[in-house]
Amino acid sequence: MGERGQYQTKQRENILHCLKANQEKFYTVEQFMDYMRSEGIPAGQTTLYRMLERLHQDGLVTKIPSMDGSPAQYRYIGDEEKQNHGKLVCLKCGQTVPLKCECMDEFSVHILNEHHFELDQQHTTLYGYCSHCRLS
Questions:
Q1: CB atoms within 10 A of CB 46
Q2: Among 43, 14, 21, 17, which residue's Cα sits nearest to residue 30?
Q3: Given CB 3.0 to 4.6 Å as the disulfide criterion, which of 3, 38, 59, 76 pairs with 23?
């Protein structure tokens, strides 16, 4: 059994392999299904959706939520970004920037003291636009 009591299935391995091979690109569930089919790897939509959500919760995949009713998009980020800090995600190009900043510690303390809410910095994601997309 793997992390969180889950089996390391062949399907999970196939999904991770495809994500790692395309880690520079964001995919919707449907686009990722099409890619997997083109590679000869069968995957059900429900299974793929659940696996991407689980990988997102585990910190291996980043997710850009829908902004205009379009489907959410996912991208593999791997273990190197799975540290105790959040990330910035560009809503236009999908660039992900680790948020290693002392201000986040101060912000977390403020949130705890003023709002009585403890942030989990590893799962903190701030969405916006990178300098390139902001200017274009």
A1: 9
A2: 43
A3: 76
